[in-house]
Amino acid sequence: MIDWEGPLTAAYERATRYLNELPERRVGPRATAGELHDALGGPLPTDPTDPLEVIADLADGVDGGLLPSGSGRFFGFVFGGATPASLAADWLTSTWDQNAGLYAASPAAAVVEDVTARWLVELFGLPGGTSVGFVTGAQMANFTALAAARHEVLRNAGWDVERDGLIGAPPIRVLAGAERHDTIDRALRFLGLGTNCIVPVAVDEQGRMLTDALAEALRDDAAWRGTRGGGVIPTIVCAQVGNVNTGAFDPVRTICDLAHQHQAWVHVDGAFGLWASVSQQLSPLLDGIELADSWATDAHKWLNVPYDSGIVLCAHPEAHRAAMSIRAAYLIQDEAGERDPLDYNPEFSRRARGIPVYAAVRALGRTGIAEIVDRCHAMANRFADALRADGVEVLNEVVLNQVLVRFGDDDAVTRRVVAEVQDEGTCWMSGTTWHGKAAMRISVTNWTTGPDDIDRSAETILKIFRKVS
């Protein structure tokens, strides 16, 4: 008889111990790479090892190298934690071990995704019938949405990119803000369009796209028209809701109005900012979001589900399916008209990652998700106020969950404060460069973060700043 209970019980005990320790655990790794190699490495095993021993050695070996990003005092990058319901559902997802590519391979996984997709479309206030794909993160969500955009703008120009490829195709121009996220550029590389297709659009001091500059860029198509021989230039406009440094939002309504006048596709990178749509207080920042053609976001950010979990949404399901779907004689597809998940994401075999999203949305509901977003916004402002009151320069308007600060108006001092805060362990945040100057970037995204976490962290940062100064 197979012993499932022993290893799973050991894993449960280790997991709950880690989670219970998070509120007071040092926020940062404790081991060096060399120490981790010593603990985990060694020659390739020749003989089997008792699973209980494997679990114990693994948990002990990695412990010092874990970055406790689920802590309420982790403010580095834009990482969320994991809510109890989403984490438990993720464990069940691993246990059930479903291949979520086809309805035939897992009717349960396919229906859970179908239900969750409808919930998300309603939650974000997007048009009915919007198609949804569950992917690894915003990188692949941007990739998938831009693949659909590539299909549609080339189809409108009389070109079938899925059949004929890009050689000889009309060139596509992509208008994107100068402060766009790098995943846009990377997605365009993956799609074979290259980064030279990007026309950077000027932004304001917070990173918001300037609509006058966009209008001018849309009109200034002479360089592209010479390669087209007249007619509509295949154009994609990439907007951003939630700048990764400042949290700023592009004016989506005006962007959509301008772009659609030129028959351009509008894609919105909303990795974390799209979740502000559930907040009555913050939703005005997303005015016009429903007018776009596609959207990308992460569930492992503000919905706080375990990694990895990204979401792509598309107002044009036909373009979405055309870019992603595949047919093969051995596959069982569409026999009962059910939704096959592989039609909406770039993967074939994949984990049923819609299940934890379902659990999170059901457990929290609209009001619970809004409470997380609103509280994180309030905590970001509390953080900014505490630092500003002690002479720290806050570089951004705290419109969402991002706080961008600089110490002593000095690059070296700022970088040293970041490094020493990370080393001290009370909290963890990352450094960045904003407009050519070093800065500390504070991201408040975790569902457990409260006033005490902010106050303890701000006190530590100020103490280190005074020491460094």
From TrEMBL:
Gene3D superfamilies recorded for this chain? Aspartate Aminotransferase, domain 1, Type I PLP-dependent aspartate aminotransferase-like (Major domain)
Residues with N6-(pyridoxal phosphate)lysine modification = 301
Its GO biological process annotations read: carboxylic acid metabolic process
Q: Which UniProt keywords apply?
A: Decarboxylase, Lyase, Pyridoxal phosphate
Cofactor(s) recorded for this entry are: pyridoxal 5'-phosphate
Determine if Transmembrane is one of this entry's keywords. no
> InterPro entries, per this entry?
Aromatic_deC (IPR010977), PyrdxlP-dep_de-COase (IPR002129), PyrdxlP-dep_Trfase (IPR015424), PyrdxlP-dep_Trfase_major (IPR015421), PyrdxlP-dep_Trfase_small (IPR015422)
Q: What family does this belong to?
A: Belongs to the group II decarboxylase family.
Name of the protein described by the UniProt record:
Glutamate/tyrosine decarboxylase-like PLP-dependent enzyme
